[in-house]
Amino acid sequence: MPRMPRFFAEGVPQHVVQRGNDRRPIFLELEDYAHFLACLLSAVRKHGAAIHGYVLMTNHVHLLMTPTTATTIPKAMQSTFSRYVTYFNARNQRTGTLLESRYRAAIVDDEHYLVACMRYIELNPVRAGLVTHPAEYRWSSFRANAFGAPDDLLTPHPAFRALGVSRDDRGTAYVDLFRGAMPDADLDLIRDATQHAWAIGGKGFRERTSSWGRRAERLPLGRPRGSEHGAG
Question: Model's pTM, two decimal places?
Answer without folding.
Answer: 0.88
